[in-house]
Design a protein that fits this description.
262 residues; 6-stranded mixed beta sheet; 25% helix
Length: 262
């Protein structure tokens, strides 16, 4: 089984790129972030023609997540509320950032973690609160189900300095501040492992490059998109790759797809 994650930065803008990529890389599951479209306007037919079942949760112009799967998924839900309750999740439900379902005995959780805006922004505190609810959300699955879990998506956090092209001074930068890293590590403490780091401990591998300042051409990137797996599933992974070539296409997303193979 192959599971890919990709922040496409608008599925309608990037639908041809995604369709062509899928035609060449027929992954079993594709998790998308920043689809930026309401469900009624999602371009379903190009992907259904490839044989995918689509599960989507979107909103106009911002955020949005989707899962494409070759086999039907079970127990699909969106947002935190169905799992942690309306009261706990109320503050975080207006932004479409979470979708989950089960395929072939694996619970797949697709996430678009808030960026945070800036360290002095209300959006930063929202991000930390969001990550706290995420931990509670995943704890429910760990307690009530015997399933292995794959959480993947755009985490908007470079967990280690080697995940940034130049980490100097980045402790005061959004996506790499100590509170963000601590909040994500608290999520992972439940029992999740970074798949990509199973295959390399070296730096220089990135998944996002800023459009500005020749970020991609100069390889000034950040590794903020990945898969985190529970232990038994982690042991079954035989490969994890970043398809950097997609970032060099005309009018690309600023993120590249990341693929794991079980």
């Amino acid at each position: 089984m192959k599971i890919a994650t990709w922040n496409v930065n608008s599925i309608r803008t990037r639908q041809d790129i995604v369709k062509e990529w899928l035609a060449k890389n027929l992954v079993d599951v594709l998790c998308l972030q920043e689809t930026k479209v309401i469900d009624a306007d999602f371009p379903r037919s190009p992907f259904e023609e490839l044989g995918y079942h689509l599960y989507i949760s979107g909103q106009k112009a911002y955020n949005g997540v989707a899962i494409f799967s070759l086999n039907p998924m079970e127990d699909v839900s969106t947002g935190f509320a169905p799992i942690v309750g309306d009261l706990e999740a109320e503050e975080f439900e207006s932004q479409k950032r979470v979708i989950t379902g089960i395929m072939e005995g694996i619970r797949i959780v697709n996430l678009y973690v808030p960026n945070g805006g800036g360290l002095d922004s209300d959006k930063y505190h929202y991000k930390l609160g969001w990550l706290s609810i995420l931990r509670k959300y995943l704890e429910v699955f760990r307690k009530k189900e015997q399933l292995e879990i794959c959480i993947c998506g755009d985490f908007n956090i470079a967990l280690e300095d080697i995940d940034i092209y130049n980490p100097k001074g980045k402790e005061n930068h959004i996506m790499s501040s100590p509170p963000e890293r601590e909040a994500l590590n608290k999520v992972l403490e439940i029992g999740f492992f970074d798949v990509f780091r199973k295959f390399t401990s070296e730096g220089g591998y990135y998944t996002w490059w800023d459009y500005r300042g020749g970020g991609f051409q100069r390889n000034r990137g950040w590794r903020i998109d990945t898969h985190y797996l529970t232990s038994n599933l982690y042991e079954k992974v035989v490969n994890s790759t970043i398809d950097k070539a997609t970032r060099g296409l005309p009018k690309p997303s600023d993120h590249a797809p990341v693929i794991l193979e079980l």
